[in-house]
Design a protein that fits this description.
single chain; 976 residues; alpha/beta; Leucine-rich repeat, LRR (right-handed beta-alpha superhelix); 31-stranded mixed sheet; seven-stranded parallel sheet; 16% helix; binds 2-acetamido-2-deoxy-beta-D-glucopyranose; transmembrane
């Protein structure tokens, strides 16, 4: 810089000013620059990092205090803060992670007091032990940065530390000695660290930290919580989180010294009672989470805990306790601050108390999954801050009060059973009018269902204009009335729509489909009488589940990737759809496709192999023809295949043997030819239902069929099978020892199966009752073939069998004696064969037998008597056996003609016998009823009372399914 010098005093002044300005400007640039040594240290640190998203791109030049993530001390210009936390938490997360190595050059930053490297993915296995030399640190956050291994004890040197967060899933610490030196610590989080080896010592070390305010040790595998502690030093503690440690402990007394405690989280441990009996000392507590703690006995009475804002007791079992007592605990408080109360799945019973209305600040109330009954109390209208009310999966059977309509903050109202697989159990009564909704201006999600279809009725004025715009609507089994149709049209922001069996019988209006199509995810309008054209001329970019089954939709079936790109399940069964199945259906990423009972014609698309995730295909009861696609086994994911009652010809495709997860096959009622392939027995081990009834199949029944250990319905009737019945039947484990557990897989597919039993067609379903019903039907049917030889003795092993039909074959020899072992048999048909000899007496042991047919054989001798057989008094079930005699046919010839006196005596005896027999009959009927009743309904009842245990199962299943769907959707999003 050149400065012009002059002697003029004025210009001297200017020069002085310019000089000052120069110095000032110079100084201010040095204010922004940092120490060269620290700058180089940072560059070396950057050098070793990988930074895919360019987060450190500002780390160039000299002004390192201005680099992103760096702050310097305003006075000394030394680097004080390094904040490289990854704050991205969406799908860009991975890319935004810093990785690579952590260079010890950081040690040059002598004044570093704040270091945050959390939520990144460093390649280090261990937390670098040189961090222990950064002794100026007050704040250190290394959480979720993919560290593992032993926490370096050198961290104990950081005696200025106020804040330490090391939450990571794979770190561990043998003992926490190092912790005792951190005497200024206020915040400590070791979440996820494996502290198993510290035994009870962890508490001793924590007790050396008198300044501690917040302690988080969730998922630390802490084995134990000591009952005794000599003196409690950390009495200033505000937050204590020991959740998810699965430790088994009683509430220790020293807890009650933590009088400042504001937040206590003990969820997911095993807490042995009694607990909170002395709760009067935890007066400051605002948040208490004891969910999933296997608490038993009385609901805690939280006397004196007037500051409580949130209480979570979900998943405990307060055996049939009432909520009334519990509420009285709050009545001593001059005010109450409760904002969130979760008592779900607690085994509570009784009516909801009016006193609920005193929790005036409540925003979140979850009482779901309990056995509450009765009506919602009128006082619910007092909870003017309520945002979420969940009464789902309860036994409520009363009315819904009009006062509910006053909850103007309510966003989410759940009065349904919608989370369960089984049908609605809740029994709301009465009429819903505009008053019930009048001020629900914030409502976004509304769910309601009833068990009996007419018990809850929506009755709105025709011109009613709802005050809300719903995102989710779920109505099942309620009558919505004609005006509903109009207010549905006003709901244009719907994302999840379920209106199942609601008595909508009109056309629903094509413009409504158009209004919601661009955002809807779930569309279930099943079991209505909706008329109209199949609405798929619009695009449904987000639709994943479509269920329009049991309606009157007509027109040609059209569905393709271009108008519904993320569709996963489609159920259009029981409509009037026509035309062919377009080949484009195979481009879709479907899990489930059901087109049962329509009027579809033509061939099934041959491009089947393009499906990669298909689980269920049900095209039964249509007019489809041609060959079954030979490529059908290529997507090996297939579990349920139902193509029955069509006109398919050809052989059972060979490729099907790839589908090792197949559980159900029904190809009955077609024109299939060829043999029954032996690989069905060897390659499809999961098969539970195999129905090939009414085809043109021929040849022998392969021995390998006996390998189907899980099969419980086997129907090969009405074909041309010849040869003998395999003798290995005792290997059919499910029929011999019972169906093993509930379903091995899970899909929310409402399956329907018809079996021929008791001389008629019986329809079974897992939708209308419970999935247990179908899985407990057991049937074995080889009727109307050309089978010869004897009925193998081994049939007597199938003691779980409910229905056995071998009629209309050429079977010879005697009925096996062991038939009497089939004590659960309800239907037995051996008619139209050449069976000979006597009817085994053991047949009278079959106490549940309600249908028997032995007609048209060569059976001879006396018909056995006693027990259930006495009720089967229709002579036609024995006709066509000329040598049979005895009840209900004519008496046997050997029976003497009695004299008059013996008639009298016999008469009396007869009466006694009769009475005895009647008694026997009643006993067997009652016994039958009891066993039958408990067999079927008992499972349901027991299931209800064990609901608690089951919910976790369902939850897990649900989580898995949600995860699967989330993954799927994620994948799709990436694809498009
Ligand atoms: C340094 O200055 C900035 C703004 O000039 C201010 O926000 C910050 O609090 C100051 N830091 C210290 C430690 O004084
Ligand atoms: C936790 O540490 C203990 C002892 O070091 C070890 O036996 C256990 O397997 C570890 N737990 C897990 C989940 O790694
Ligand atoms: C904390 O209490 C223990 C006894 O449990 C005692 O030995 C120790 O000195 C106390 N520590 C502090 C820092 O007060």
């Amino acid at each position: 810089m050149e400065i012009y010098v002059s002697c003029n005093p004025f210009s001297r002044l200017i020069v002085r000013f310019l000089l000052l300005l120069y110095l000032f400007l110079n100084a201010s640039t040095s204010v922004n620059s940092c120490m060269e040594e620290e700058r180089r240290a940072l560059l070396a640190f950057k050098q070793d990092l990988t930074d895919r998203s360019g987060r450190l791109s500002s780390w160039v030049g000299h002004e390192c205090c201005r680099w992103r993530g760096i702050s310097c001390n305003n006075r000394t210009r030394r680097v004080a803060k390094l904040d490289l936390r990854n704050t991205i938490d969406d799908e860009e997360y991975e890319r935004s992670c810093l990785g690579g190595k952590l260079n010890p050059s950081l040690l040059a930053l002598k004044h570093l007091s704040y270091l945050d490297l959390s939520s990144n993915k460093f390649e280090e296995v261990h937390i670098p032990s040189f961090f222990g030399q950064l002794t100026s640190l007050r704040y250190l956050n290394l959480s979720y940065a993919s560290f593992g291994g032993e926490i370096p004890p050198s961290l104990g040197n950081l005696s200025n530390l106020n804040y330490l967060d090391l939450a990571n899933y794979d770190v561990s610490s043998k003992n926490l000695n190092w912790l005792s030196h951190l005497s200024s610590l206020k915040y400590l989080n070791l979440g996820g660290a494996n502290l198993t080896s510290t035994g009870v010592g962890w508490l001793h070390h924590v007790n050396m930290l008198p300044t501690l305010l917040e302690l988080y040790l969730p998922q630390c595998q802490i084995p134990n919580l000591p009952l005794a502690l000599q003196s409690v030093n950390f009495t200033s503690l505000l937050v204590l989180d020991l959740s998810s440690n699965d430790m088994n402990f009683s509430f220790p007394n020293w807890f009650f010294n933590l009088t400042s405690l504001v937040e206590l989280d003990l969820r997911q441990n095993v807490l042995r009672g009694p607990f909170l009996n002395n709760s009067t000392s935890l007066r400051s507590l605002e948040h208490l989470d004891l969910s999933n703690c296997r608490l038993q006995g009385q609901l805690p009475k939280l006397v004196g805990m007037c500051e409580l804002k949130s209480l979570n007791l979900e998943y405990n079992y307060f055996g049939a306790a009432e909520i009334q007592e519990f509420m009285s605990g709050f009545s001593n408080c001059s005010y109450n601050r409760m904002e969130s109360l979760d008592l779900s799945a607690c085994g509570l019973v009784g009516e909801l108390p009016t006193s609920l209305g005193m929790l005036k600040r409540l925003q979140h109330l979850d009482l779901s999954r309990n056995s509450f009954w009765g009506s919602i109390p009128e006082s619910i209208g007092n909870l003017s801050s309520l945002k979420r009310l969940d009464l789902s999966q309860t036994s409520m059977n009363g009315s819904i009060p009009e006062s509910l309509g006053q909850l103007s903050q309510l966003v989410d109202l759940d009065l349904s059973d919608s989370e369960t697989v089984s049908p609605c159990e809740i029994q709301w009564q009465g009429i819903l009018t505009e008053a019930h909704f009048i001020n629900l201006t914030s409502l976004e999600s509304f769910k309601v269902c009833t068990k009996r279809p007419l018990s809850l009725i929506f009755n709105m004025a025709y011109d009613w204009d709802p005050p809300f715009k719903l995102h989710t609507i779920y109505i099942e089994n309620c009558r919505v009335g004609p005006a509903f149709h109009r207010w549905l049209q006003s709901q244009t922001q719907l994302v999840d729509v379920t209106l199942r069996n609601t008595g909508i019988w009109d056309t629903i209006g094509e413009d409504w489909f158009m209004k919601i199509s661009s955002q809807v995810h779930t569309l279930d309008l099943s079991y209505n009488q909706i008329r109209g054209k199949f609405p798929f001329q619009y695009e449904f970019p987000y639709l994943t589940n479509l269920d329009l089954s049991y309606n009157q939709f007509e027109g040609t079936f059209q569905l393709s990737l271009s108008n519904a790109p993320v569709l996963l399940t489609v159920d259009l069964s029981d409509n009037h759809l026509e035309g062919t199945i377009p080949p484009s259906i195979c481009d879709m990423l479907l899990y489930t496709l059901s087109l049962r009972n329509n009027q579809l014609t033509g061939e099934f698309p041959q491009a089947w192999s393009f499906w990669s995730n298909i689980n269920v295909v049900d095209v039964s009861h249509n007019n489809l023809s041609g060959y079954i696609p030979s490529s059908m086994g290529i997507p090996s994911s297939l579990k349920v295949l139902k193509m029955n009652n069509n006109n398919f010809g050809g052989e059972i495709p060979f490729s099907l043997q790839n589908c090792s997860g197949l559980t159900n096959i029904d190809l009955g009622g077609n024109k299939l030819t060829g043999k029954l392939p032996s690989w069905i027995g060897s390659k499809l081990p999961e098969l539970q239902i195999l129905q090939l009834r009414s085809n043109l199949l021929s040849g022998h029944i392969p021995q390998q069929l006996c390998n189907l250990r899980k099969v419980h319905i086997l129907d090969l009737g009405c074909n041309n099978f010849s040869g003998t019945i395999p003798t290995c039947l005792n290997n059919l484990t499910s029929l011999a020892y019972g169906v093993q557990g509930p379903w091995s897989g899970y899909f929310s597919y409402s399956e329907q199966t018809t079996i021929i039993s008791k001389g008629t067609e019986l329809e079974y379903s897992n939708a209308n009752l419970d999935l247990w019903i179908l899985t407990h039907v057991t049937s074995f049917d080889l009727s109307s073939n050309n089978l010869e030889g004897e009925i193998p003795e081994e049939i007597g092993s199938l003691i779980e069998l409910g229905s056995l039909n071998l009629s209309r074959n050429q079977l010879t020899e005697k009925i096996p004696l062991k038939i009497g072992n089939l004590t659960r048999l309800e239907s037995l048909d051996l008619s139209h064969n050449h069976l000979s000899g006597e009817i085994p007496h053991s047949i009278s042991f079959l106490n549940f037998l309600s249908h028997l047919n032995l007609s048209y054989n060569n059976l001879s001798g006396r018909i056995p008597t006693g027990n259930q057989l006495q009720t089967l008094d229709d002579p036609s079930i024995y006709e066509g056996n000329p040598s049979l005699c005895g009840f209900p046919l004519q008496k046997c010839s050997g029976d003497d003609m009695p004299t008059e006196q013996t008639i009298l005596a016999e008469d009396n005896k007869d009466h006694e016998d009769d009475d005895n027999e009647k008694l026997g009959f009643y006993i067997s009927v009652v016994l039958g009823f009891v066993i039958g009743f408990w067999g079927v309904c008992g499972t349901l009842l027991v299931k209800k009372s064990w609901m608690h245990a089951y919910f976790q199962l369902f939850d897990n299943i649900k989580d898995k399914v949600t995860l699967a769907i989330a993954l799927k959707v994620g994948r799709l999003q990436r694809r498009y």
